[in-house]
Amino acid sequence: MKTPLPTHPLGTAADLDPLLAAIGDARIVLLGEASHGTSEYYTWRAALSRRLIQEKGFQFIAVEGDWPDCFEVNCALKQDKDEYDSAAQLLCTFDRWPTWMWGNWEVAALIDWLHTYNRQRALPERVGFYGLDVYSLWESLQEILRYVTKQGDGAVAAAQQAFRCFEPYGNDPQEYAQAVAFVSSDCEDEVTQMLRSLRRQLRATPLPPGLERETAFAAEQNALVTVNAERYYRAMIQGGPASWNVRDGHMMETLSRLLDLHGPNSKAIVWEHNTHIGDARYTDMARDNTVNVGQLARQMYGRNAVFAVGFGSYQGSVIAGKKWGAPFETMPVPPAIRGSWEEQLHQQLQGENGLLLSSELKGTAALKQTFGHRAIGVVYRPEFEQFGNYVPSLMAERYDAFLFFDHTHALHPLPTKPAENVPPDMYPWTE
């Protein structure tokens, strides 16, 4: 970039004023991250989320996490009973690898703030916290069984049948996927019938607004998770973009359901990796017919209603594992490669942080030129990052704004004891 880009300083939460103004009346604000293990990405997303909640009335945060674990956090944030201990204790429920994604002190600080904020408000005005992801097949099945058994309704038989179908595979969805990859026998019909039965039952018993209604919504959501997770794991074995598209399609469907739950004027904040929130049509993902939440949200709600904020850094440290399921480590993040988006911002800003707004990039190379944009996953090998950690991107179209941090630091994980069973290697390198 020969012509310097227009940037805004980024030092304190007050420096987010231009970003708040650019967001305007957007209904959905997508907040990204270039890794799942960088402290600054979490703390600045939290700072922006607090302002969106306080100043623009956003009603919930939806994250790249499992529905059952996140819904437990949501209930703790909204309940009237004084049973809340601390966010750190609550977040220890995120015990599946990679545990640090949501089990960290940065998220704990946000959850404690949300709890305090909610206590000052009536139940309908309390801010929610939900998971968008599709991985919790077994956990969601168990939640459904608990719900329908307690309700004693007509969906019990269908839930039990679905549970029995998956039972031979224990809680290992990869074993299920491998077992049904080359045979006609699978559990697709069972989970579909369970979802239909549950929906019929819920329509027959309308509930008043409040946590009781959310609990019923959660039961239906868990059934939807099992349907889409079953599809996801089968597609994962076959390879290609199908499993990614099932996953992001599920996350978009969940986001839309949550917006409907909260009413026609509801507003959502989404926390996910850049690879999910930055419109896939302006990256090399489009060549493989891969879609993501950023693209689907713009297509479903219109570009003016969706505001995507990308994040990135030049160098620093990060929490990640050297291989799938490995213990997390603090790893160095080397200086970004020559010619990359991050390297050019480093040169222009001379080591300072900065905020860029796409609406101000007209007439610059960033509006029409593709740059390599770094993406670090939960598995990371710094010594090899130049061979695959950069996503070619048309940055001014992929995002509506970009937060650049010259030097970042590793996330601070909670001392969570990981569950014994490591999930299958489901994330691509960018995740």
UniProtKB/TrEMBL annotation:
| Signal peptide per UniProt | none
- PANTHER family cross-referenced by the UniProt entry: ESTERASE, PUTATIVE (AFU_ORTHOLOGUE AFUA_1G05850)-RELATED
Q: What name appears for this protein in its UniProt entry? A: Erythromycin esterase family protein
**InterPro entries per the UniProt record, alphabetical:** Emycin_Estase, Hydrolase/PRTase-associated, UCP036794_erythomycin
Classification via CDD domains: Ere-like
Pfam families with a match to the protein in the record = Erythro_esteras
